């Protein structure tokens, strides 16, 4: 058991990518947002943008400024050069907005049970797989390495996960009369939370962005089970509150009296 805990504490998610990857991915994110607006998924688009901003705050504000667990390096003349706050912010702004927007869109569409959920999800996953291949086909450009240690804050994520799901479980046990539907909801929330992070972690691994080493499996499993999943109970209630009042096109929900 101690070996497992030690392994979790030693997880250091690392990514190696080039400047063309960032440029190509930025174009995809803009196109993705335009498609959401074209299909009048306005609330999904707004939620996705807010998720991106939240990721920036957590990654730069929390991981970099407060806990000092995030580092960005540029490869200059074959050497790793640690970057200062400005370049760190620029890289983390792109990375946080990219994953925040795509994760947010998948979560909201899945909670909506939108008819285009699979289409948008597949477009994201296929892009995550293909973008590194396209970037490698470009001329040599600046190589960027990002690292993040997790032992300083995974316990905080665990608290959010326990409180969120614990609230739903206790509420269901004490007050719900439709346990079958409650179980479906709990499993569905876990499935969304796991898949959105696992798709991202798996794509990073198979594309070579995330290095293959003795910690690769632990990183993929632990991050997938905890990091996005911890927010699902809170997103669930935010979704219920907003969608009970607004449609996706921002028109008011009409409540027909019986």
Rough outline: globular
Portion of residues in beta strands equals 5-15%
* Widest β-sheet, arrangement of strands: 1-4-2-3
Unreliable spans are 1-10
| Structural class based on helices, strands and sheet pairing | alpha+beta
Average pLDDT, to the nearest integer? 89
Q: What percent of the residues sit in helical stretches (DSSP H or I)? A: 55-70%
- Rg, Å, rounded: 19 Å
In sequence order, what are the helices and strands, one letter per element?
Answer: HEHHEEHHEHHHH
Q: Tally the beta strands.
A: 4
Sheet of most strands: 4 strands, antiparallel
Distance between the termini: 58 Å
The DSSP helix count reads 9
Describe this structure in words.
This protein is of the alpha+beta class and 258 residues long. Helix content is 67%, strand content 9%. Strands 1-4-2-3 form a four-stranded antiparallel β-sheet. The radius of gyration is 19 Å and the shape is globular.
Describe the structure in brief.
The chain has 258 residues and is α+β, with helices and mostly antiparallel strands. The protein has 9 helices and 4 strands; from the N terminus they run αβααββααβαααα.
Q: Key terms for this structure?
A:
single chain, 9% strand, alpha+beta, 9 helices, 4-stranded antiparallel beta sheet, 258 residues
Topology:
Elements: H1 2-9, E1 14-18, H2 19-38, H3 42-66, E2 70-76, E3 79-82, H4 85-112, H5 117-136, E4 143-148, H6 154-175, H7 179-206, H8 216-226, H9 232-243
Antiparallel strand pairs: 1-4, 2-3, 2-4
């Amino acid at each position: 058991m101690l070996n497992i805990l030690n392994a979790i504490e030693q997880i250091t998610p690392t990514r190696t990518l080039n400047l063309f990857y960032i440029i190509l991915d930025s174009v995809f994110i803009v196109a993705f947002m335009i498609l959401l607006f074209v299909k009048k998924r306005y609330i999904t688009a707004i939620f996705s943008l807010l998720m991106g901003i939240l990721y920036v705050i957590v990654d730069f504000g929390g991981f970099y400024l407060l806990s000092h667990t995030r580092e960005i390096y540029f490869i200059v003349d074959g050497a790793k050069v640690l970057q200062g706050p400005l370049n760190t912010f620029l890289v983390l702004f792109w990375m946080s907005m990219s994953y925040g927007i795509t994760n947010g869109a998948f979560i909201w569409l899945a909670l909506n049970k939108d008819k285009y959920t699979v289409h948008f999800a597949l477009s994201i996953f296929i892009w995550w797989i293909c973008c590194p291949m396209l970037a490698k086909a470009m001329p040599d450009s600046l190589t960027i390495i990002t690292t993040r240690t997790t032992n300083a804050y995974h316990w905080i994520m665990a608290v959010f996960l326990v409180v969120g799901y614990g609230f739903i479980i206790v509420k269901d046990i004490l007050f719900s009369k439709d346990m079958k539907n409650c179980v479906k909801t709990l499993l569905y929330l876990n499935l969304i939370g796991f898949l959105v992070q696992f798709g991202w972690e798996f794509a990073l691994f198979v594309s070579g962005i995330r290095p293959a080493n003795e910690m690769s499996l632990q990183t993929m499993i632990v991050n997938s089970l905890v990091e996005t999943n911890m927010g699902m109970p809170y997103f669930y209630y935010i979704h219920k509150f907003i969608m009970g009042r607004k449609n996706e096109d921002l028109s008011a929900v009409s409540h027909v009296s019986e």
